[in-house]
Amino acid sequence: MKSKNETSRRDFIKLGGTATLGLSTLHLTGCKEGETENVAKSASNQKGNRRFPDDFVWGTATAAYQVEGAVKEDGRGMSIWDTYSEIPGKIKNNDTGEVACDMYHRYKEDVQLMKSIHAGAYRFSISWPRVFPEGMGTPNPKGLDFYDRLIDELLANGITPYATLYHWDLPQTLQDKYGGWQSKETSKAFAAYAAYVTEKISDRVKHYFTLNEFYSFTDLSYGQGQLAPGLKLPQKGIVQVRHNAVLAHGMAVEAMRQSAKSPLEIGVAENIVTAVPVMDTRENIEAAKNATRELNAGLLTVMLEGKYTDKYLNSLGSDAPEFTDEELKLIGSPLDFVGINVYLANKYVLAADNEDGYELLPHAKHHPTMASPWHLISPESLYWAPRLVKELWNAKEIYITENGCGATDEMTNDGKIIDTDRVMFMKNYLTQLHRATSEGIPVKGYFHWSLMDNFEWIFGYGIRFGLFYMDYETLERTPKQSAAYFKNIAKSNTLI
């Protein structure tokens, strides 16, 4: 994602090394007789040096509203995205998630897709209005039944489930009754929902992300009016929405730990705003750390420190959020891991002789992008984001909960999708992730966004992020070239 002062996918909502040297090329390298064995050993060592940690997790990710469909089946309640999608002009081509990828009915097929590319984990979100149609009160057994079946299917196929409890599909009734995230009543309702789900599935699911991409469902949804519910509150209202969201996270962490049937691990999935040093000097690295802490002050920083920075509060003045010390304690509840969604370097940073100690540099006018103009190519972000999380907050474990790119994939006449742009993106970014793990930064796993093309929020079905191509007429899934690339890396646990 990009800077909170810029526009990105959510706002409207690795350089790969050379191939391992093959024995068949040895005579072309000028090797003398007797040196072949040494060169082969060197090639083997090179491959070993490109391996990820032995317990590294390779997975894919989706979100409920983007893939499930079946929005009116089995007692599911309305979400704010159902309502927003029905407003003409809000979504490209007036698309909706009513059918999406129909994963609700095709989940067994989709689990086989994961298995076919050697994905060992799947990060999925649970639809709050499926489980609690009114957001609170009486749960809907049929809603949770779907996730029970999905979880069992994953486990039966050797795939570890990672559950996200909120990926933007707020029950419409909570928006109508309380103004959604404008009220701490919604925070309480989320904690109750999270506790209920944990109690029911913690016998099989051990890893949880509370909420996904706070800035998107707070500022972009309640301040800039670009995502559901499409409001434009004044600054004080937006700031309070942020606080209520991180409060929901903290309350949920405590409630989940109390209701779990067995030990579990809890973290967050936040779209970290990453400040990257424009040059890797000691001064610039320190500047990047300080900038990253402040750029995330209202969300990730307060969750990991249990306090707002002085600079953040002072900058808000009378618009500062209303909170108590007890709330801050909850918000800062210790986490087992930190999940970060990483797409780009939000800002480049130089050390500066000013009050902040850093200068934020704009991206150059012709900085290269992916198909989406917001997606400024910056592979180094997948190194610096986890490194800064480790150095700033001493995270015990880190997951890359989202990384991927949108493209205008097309099927050839012979039924292939040659998405070389996505393959090149993955090579470059994963090289930087390998740099991080090789330096001992505790990155535990990587979830590619996304398993398959799906409903891309206000872009509808007009942009594709998947490893599998989706024919939205027939709902047929077809592997892209990037799926083969992912499979090779996941199977070998080695950068290719």
Question: What are the defining features of this structure?
Answer:
496 residues, alpha/beta, TIM Barrel, disordered N terminus
Structural description of this entry:
With 496 residues, this protein is of the alpha/beta class. The protein has a single domain (58-492), classed as TIM Barrel (Alpha-Beta Barrel). Helices cover 40% and strands 13% of the residues. The chain is built from 18 helices and 13 strands. It has an 8-stranded parallel barrel with strand order 1-2-3-4-5-7-10-11, surrounded by 4 helices. The chain has a 3-stranded mixed beta sheet with strand order 6-8-9. A two-stranded antiparallel sheet has the order 12-13. Helix 17 (420-438) links the parallel strand 10 (398-403) and strand 11. The chain is globular, with a radius of gyration of 23 Å.
- List low-pLDDT spans: 1-46
Task: Assign the CATH superfamily.
Answer: Glycosidases
CATH class: Alpha Beta
Write down the overall mean pLDDT. Answer: 92
What is the number of strand segments? 13
- Looking at the structure, the CATH topology is TIM Barrel
Q: Can you count the helices?
A: 18
End-to-end span in angstroms?
Answer: 26 Å
What percentage of residues falls in helices of 4 or more residues?
25-40%
* CATH architecture descriptor name: Alpha-Beta Barrel
Biggest sheet: strands side by side, in what order? 1-2-3-4-5-7-10-11
Silhouette: globular
What is the CA-atom radius of gyration, in angstroms? 23 Å
